[in-house]
Structure formats: structure tokens, C-alpha cells
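Format notes (please read before filing issues)

Several people have asked whether sequences and C-alpha cells are stored in separate files. They are not. Every record keeps both together, in the order shown below: the sequence lines, then the C-alpha cell lines. Line labels are part of the format and must not be stripped during preprocessing.
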Amino acid sequence: MHDDATATTELPLIALPDRIFFPGVEEIVALPGEIASRVEPHDPTVVLAWEVLGDEVAAETLPTPGPSGGRLASHACIGTLLSVRTNRSTWPGRVRCTRRVRLLDARPFADRSVFQATVQLLDDVVRAADMQVVPDLRAGLIESVEAIASKIAGADDLLKDLARAEVSLGTLCDILAFTLPLSATDKFALLAEVRVVERAAFLKRKLEAAAGDPRFHGELRGRFPA
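Then the structure lines:
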């Protein structure tokens, strides 16, 4: 796979305080009325991750400055859902893959809670020589999560999900990068990295450092099951 430097497309973005949303879903399960009124139920599913806010299910990228004067992220990661369920006690779908996008520009639409963005689709880069190290990197990432599990509330459930996940190493990195309490700087660096082996190695180093840091603790930002 390669970085397609020419393909661009238009995607609707919904920006709320501290979040930017790629709102396309196969079915609207539960979103604030102001958002749901602007979302077409049959749009292609392009969501990065989610969290449950009371009885509302929201799709999101990463925490970012709010729409009033804040900057949008330079990159984002979008995922594709296989299906959507209406059981609000669980995530309403299963993630098939993730894709990187570079935000070329974002323009306010109507009011400042909705943006339209031109994005460049970026393919994950996996060289032939990289395939030899992918299995070890994948196993190492899971071991690194196990090493910090006691410091993170809910990590045991995440590990069970990952053990059952049949996703690529790149997607696994994206799941971990979103759910684990890494710094915003590290999260954005992982978003911008199209080379899968380098992304996995960077994330593994960060998790190993966190395991040895007595100050490291936190909780998951919700689950992103595969």
C-alpha cells in the first residue's frame, strides 16, 4: 500500500467543544438533536472512535481545541463499521479497518458547530521487508498493554477485545492510540504516521516508558472493539 498524494474528497465534520466528529453512520443510534438533524443516516460510515455520554453515543477523533478560534487537527483517522445495533449498553458496531486522512482545509458551514473539510486519503505503508517484524510488533504491543494494565481502569476488558481482534497491525495501533491515556502530542504523532512499522514501534516505546513511570495512571477513553 502507499500514500496516495492526489486523492481528495469532501467529508462533513461536526466540531463541538474539545472534539471534532466525522458523523457518518449507517443508522443514527443516539446523538444530540442538533447533530442528528444534520446527519444523513445512510452516509458512508466514517468514524474514528466513540464514547458513551449518558445515553448518547458519539463518534469522535481526538480531543482538539473547540470550534471558537481553535485549530483543527492536521490528521485524523477514520474507521468503517460493519453494522450498527441499537443496544446502547455496547458499542453499536464492529470496526473493519481504519484509514488516515490529512485535513487540507476546514470551512464553517451554517454555524460554527458544523464544518466541511477537504481531506486527502492516506494509505498505510507496509513494505515487503516489514512483514517479517509485524507479528513480533503486534505481540509486543499487547505485552506492553499488559504491563500497564494495573495502572489503567478497564484495561483488562480491552485486552480481551484485542485478543479476539482480527485486524491489521495498523488498525491495532489506532485502537490503542485512541483508548490508552497517552499525551495529546503522542496521539497526534501517531495519527500522522502512515508507516505501520514505525507507528507500532513508536507506540510500543511509549507504552514501555509508561510502564516504568510511577506517575503514569489513567483510564480508557471508552472501548473501540474490532
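For reference, the curators noted about this record: The CA atoms of residues 32 and 133 lie 44 Å apart. The chain has two domains: 8-122, 128-219.
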